[in-house]
Amino acid sequence: METFLYKLFYDTGALIDGWHAAANAAGAARGWPPLVVDILFQLGWAVAAALFLALNALFIIWFERKVAAKMQLRRGPNRVGPFGLLQTLADTGKLLIKEDIIPTAADRPVFRAAPFVVLAATVLLFVVLPFGKGLIPADLNIGVVYFLAISGISVIGILSGGWASNNKYSLMGGMRSAAQIVSYEVPGVLVVLSVAMLAGSLKMGDIVRAQPSYGYALLQPVGFILFLIASNAEINRGPFDLPEADSELVSGFVTEYSAMRFAFFFLAEYTNLFLAGAFATTLFLGGWRGPLLPPVVWFLLKSYIVVFVLIWIRWTFPRLRVDHLMEFSWKVLLPLALLNLLVTAVLVKVL
Amino acid sequence: MSDPTTPTGGRASPATAQASAGTSDEFLLNVGPQHPATHGVLRVVVTMDGEVVKDLQPHLGYVHRGLEKLFENRTYEQIIPFTDRTDYLSAIANNWAYVMAVEKLLGMEVPKKVEYIRVLMAELNRINSHLLWLAAYGLDMGAFTPFLYAFRDREEINTMIEEASGGRLTTNYFRIGGFIHDLPPAFFPRLKKFLGRFGRAVDELDTLLVENAIFVARTRGVGIISRERAISYGMSGPCLRASDAPLDLRREAPYSIYGSLEFEIPAGRNGDTWDRSWVRIEEMRQSLRILRQAMDGFPEGEHRVRAPRNIEPPAGEVYSAVEGPRGEVGFYVVSDGTRKPYRVKMRKPSFSNFSALPEIMRGLKIADLVAVMGSLDLVVPEIDR
Question: pLDDT per residue over B262-321, tens digit each?
């Protein structure tokens, strides 16, 4: 029993591998092909990821509202459940039973599909997210490339949502978002490249293991800050929340969305917030590694600390203007990222 | 074709939009009357080329209530609560300008104490109004936190005003010849406490929003209006002073006890959006100075003149104006010797300030529309009346 608990917390990956092997054996005994067992097993991962996604969104929305409230001399949600923890659940319930309004002039199939594209892009990122030692749905050889590629997909959903709404504010929000994500992807990619160089691998698991105990954040201070800024911009949060700048574009690309479709955008947004923190943790803060506490706890703790910093930034700064945003990316972040890449490359070669 | 857009929010019908916009690159964007950045039911139709504003046409009248006509059917005292409703953020300044006009008509002198209370109230009201501007402007610029900080301080001022007058926004405190009530005993302890800490609060708001790098980048050099153009548009208040024209009625045509008080008139250099913001922050500091002096020199005496129940000013006409938070608040009153005025004309700063918007906005980005419109500190009921 004790060994089971120890394994559950400190060596979850090995435990799951054990289950996988047992499942394979059980399947073989019944004469099932290994592929079927594999698919069933991966389904288990998918359910686990979906569960985590939902719980995490519940927590993180509550967390942001509480943190923002504390910063703004307010109390935040405190009615539903202990400390208002179930407020998000109540809100989701409300959104579920609301009417799903689709504008008459909208491009219906695209309008309907857009939220799912955005959410799907978010969920797909969980595939390469190492929660703990061996606790990663699929430690792909090209994990970093996969992460960069998939994180760019959500822009398709946002742009098509803005286009399909047939509303000028939505369209402008969608276009801004596209321009913004594309611009900030570039410095983001360069910074991640420097990390991959240091680690000598594109595998997420290897990057975590290759880091010194203090993480790459100290070896790559510029890179870490650039990554935080770029990912903050890519997830469209303040001060880079121009795609949904409420004072200019009403709600940007979500203006015409209501009920569950809106909730899906919302869910994707907050999951992206967590993912920004999680990947910053994985790439720069040593991932799940840390003394004493179980790896999963370390991982979540570090991720939520990064999330807290992002929340802090959001509630402190005013919003950038759209051309400043572009200038900032191309004229400041990109040269810095290139320089960072160059210095890293030289140092890796020399040392 | 005076109004080429349909009244549906956010979208013009394709046919009319193309008819009015010359090339296919241009399109019309209908901002308001239910847009989050217009602070009330204000509507501007923007001709845009991509994100660049080509032209801008304001549409007024969504909250027109015909107040000036209403005034002609009210007795002089009955008009006072209506003046509150023209500008709900500076009810005191409006009360004052109107009451002062009637007192001038009557040739009435008010006691020293009344003047002091008026100055105290007006300056509190000015801080109150500037704080709300800062709060709303922060929201426009995407910063939500300063909003709540400003409201924390507004709450204290509103409490003071409420204890004195019974109202928080529409105070209806002034009467011809004085006030309906004297200041309550708790007023000065509260004021002292407020003066003790508000200086720091202003600094905090200053560093949090107005000195913030992103804020400066968005406002510095944006929405410039020259001193000459500002004057020819009849702009007044902080919007005018930002254009390097330190004109303030409290200094230029001192009324009440302002002539004997020490304060500075902050003036901006460039007339841009940032200057308009900075002038308001600085004015709050100056108002604090005025409040301190008025509190220290507060005299004993009556809080009103015993005016006759039915006021019938002699026939004649008079214009009186005070420096409200948004600029010159003027009342032009014509009396025909009866209990009701023959004509009352209101001169409101927001109207003149707003009229400069199309000129300021041409060639700027749509994101600047929010920054510029917010910096003009418009109160829509004041534009429409």
Answer: 888 888 888 888 898 999 999 999 999 999 888 888 888 888 887 777 888 888 899 999
The amino acid sitting at A122 is T
pTM, full prediction: 0.80
Q: How many CB atoms within 10 Å of residue A335?
A: 11
For residue B334, the 8-state DSSP code is E
Task: Fill in the amino acid letter for A70.
Answer: K
What single string gives the DSSP state of each residue in A256-267? T--HHHHHHHHH
Q: For helices B366-375 and B112-140, what crossing angle results, to 10°?
A: 170
User: Chain A: nearest CA to B36, how far in angstroms?
Assistant: 5
Q: For the segment B33-73, what is each residue's pLDDT rounded down to a tens digit? A: 777 666 778 888 888 887 788 888 888 888 888 888 889 98
Taking only the tens place, the pLDDT of each residue in A193-221 is 888 888 888 888 888 888 887 778 778 88
Beta bridge partners of B57: B45
The string of DSSP codes covering A128-176 is G---BTTB-S---TTHHHHHHHHHTTHHHHHHHHHHHTT-HHHHHHHHH
Residue A246 touches chain B, beta carbons under 8 Å? yes
At A138-155, the pLDDT tens digits run: 778 888 889 888 888 888
pLDDT > 90: what percent of chain B?
6
For residue A233, the enclosing domain spans 56-350
The string of pLDDT tens digits covering residues A286-335 is 878 778 788 888 888 889 999 999 998 888 888 887 778 888 888 988 99
Query: Does the beta-carbon distance from A239 to B214 stay under 8 Å?
Result: yes
| Inter-helix orientation angle A34-71/A295-314, to 10° | 40
Give the total number of structural domains in chain A: 1
Which residues in chain A are contacts of B217 at CB distance < 8 A? 320-321, 324
Angstrom CA distances, A251 to A243, B36, B237, B271, B365, stand at: 8, 10, 33, 31, 18
CB contact under 8 A, B143 and A317: yes
Is residue B76 within 8 Å of B311, Cβ to Cβ?
yes
Contact A247 B36 (CB under 8 A): yes
Pick from A184, A51, A230, A177: nearest CA to A123:
A51
Domain map (residue ranges) of chain B: 67-384
Residue A42 distance to chain B (closest CA, Å):
42
**CA dist., res. B98 & res. B95, Å (int):** 5
pLDDT, averaged across chain B: 83
Distance CA B193, CA B294 (A): 15
The per-residue pLDDT for B24 is 63
Chain A CB contacts of B366 below 8 Å: 172, 248
**Set of chain A residues whose Cβ sits within 8 Å of the Cβ of B212:** 317-318
* A245 to B218: CB separation less than 8 angstroms, yes or no: no
Q: Which of B142, B217, B371 has the CB atom closest to A238's CB atom?
A: B142
Q: Nearest CA of chain B to the CA of A2: how many Å?
A: 49
B67-384: CATH architecture: Orthogonal Bundle (1.10)
Interface residue B283 vs chain A (CB under 8 A): no
Please state, in angstroms and rounded to a whole number, the distance separating the CA atoms of residues A280 and A101.
Answer: 37
The pLDDT value given to residue B37: 66
Residue A97 within a domain: yes
Mutation choice for A interface testing from B6, B8, B11 by most A CBs within 10 A: B11
Q: Which of A104, A316, A321 to mutate to test the interface with B (most CBs of B within 10 A)?
A: A321
- B180 is written with which tokens? 């309906």
Answer whether residue A12 is part of any domain: no
Test mutation, B140, B149, B153, B215, chain A, max A CBs within 10 A = B140
Read off the tokens for B146: 């300063």
CA distance B88 to chain A (A): 22
